[in-house]
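User: I'm putting together notes for a lab meeting next week and I want to include a structural view of one of the chains we've been expressing. I don't have a solved structure, so I'd like a prediction I can at least talk through. The sequence is below, exactly as it appears in our construct file.
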Amino acid sequence: MSKEAATKGLERVIISGGGTGGHIHPAVAIADEIRQRHPQCEILFVGAKGRMEMEKVPKAGYSIVGLWISGIDRNWRSLRNLTFPLKLLSSLFKAGRIIRKFKPQLAVGVGGFASGPLLYRAALRGIPTAIQEQNSFPGITNRLLAKKVQLICAGFPGLDRWFPKDRIIETGNPLRENVTKIQLINSEQRAAALEHFGFTGDRPVAFIMGGSLGAGSMNEAVMAMAHRIATDEKELPYDLLWQCGARFQATMQAELEALPLPAKQRIVCVGFIDRMDHAYCAADVIASRAGAMSIAELALVSKPTLLVPSPVVAEDHQTKNARSLSDRGGAVLVPDGDVVERLESELTQLLNDPVRQKSLTDALRGAARPKAAHEVVAALEKLVIHSQ
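Assistant: Thanks for the context. Below is the predicted structure for the 388-residue chain, given as structure tokens.
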């Protein structure tokens, strides 16, 4: 940065997008890095009303404004699509009003419905704009914005298929500091993490996460395991920490509580985990969806991992994400259609094979990008300076 810019620093930044934890977590990580480097900077989030970001962003300590916006239903006959033009016009109008009032130096989109209207209006006003794309296959909002923005921070290589090559910088996906510190885990932190979830530490812990919205097949696999041990009255040789997704939690918890599980068997069912650092610390092995942010976190955490790509995402991009690790020996890829049948046996085999565990974790660690948030914000700073 120039002397003048270094002294003045960033003063007002808008970060827009959300919808899932995969968009929200990198957005907050970017905000945290900006706040650390520019303590005086005002940061405003813009999300979609009724979506997860409207709850999670304030919990992270940031202000957020909601737009009345949603995506187009893939079923073109859906009645919800009739309201889309009205929602889009409303959001464009409100986005323009937010920009005029807040006067940002910079607008950053992380994907999700709300980032479209906000970045479009910001670009029209000549405000420096950037997007942070987490996946190996970009979402529709970011693809539409690609020619409007000046900078694209890529979480995966190969995005020049979708974006102008001269605007891409490969940074990796930004992670919050409490996750990046997992690399420095010690016995006291692990004890605190186990206690946080009610585990005693006398058995290994398998952490099963289906993403912030949950995963039906992985939930089915865990319930199949629970029903089997209830029927056989034979405990698993490990405890389970199970992130089932907030929308499934009441149903899954009720079904779990209705089963006569063995007295010492611990299956902890949670909807959404705010303290992922505790979850990663507690885990000995992990089974996860293959979302971009999960991949970034898992590489950093470097625990033996099973990846179960979601089959209902655009261009099957989670399988591409998963293969970026499994092809280098950093994870075990389990197809979604096989997870109910294979999850229990795969976890058991992995926990009983320390040589394989070490091989997986060594390869996984090589894919980590712990400085991604730093690289993203450094690129944003340069963008602002060059636009002056």
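A couple of points you could mention at the meeting. The chain is about 45% helix and 15% strand. The chain has two domains: 3-175+370-387, 178-365.

User: Perfect, that's what I needed.
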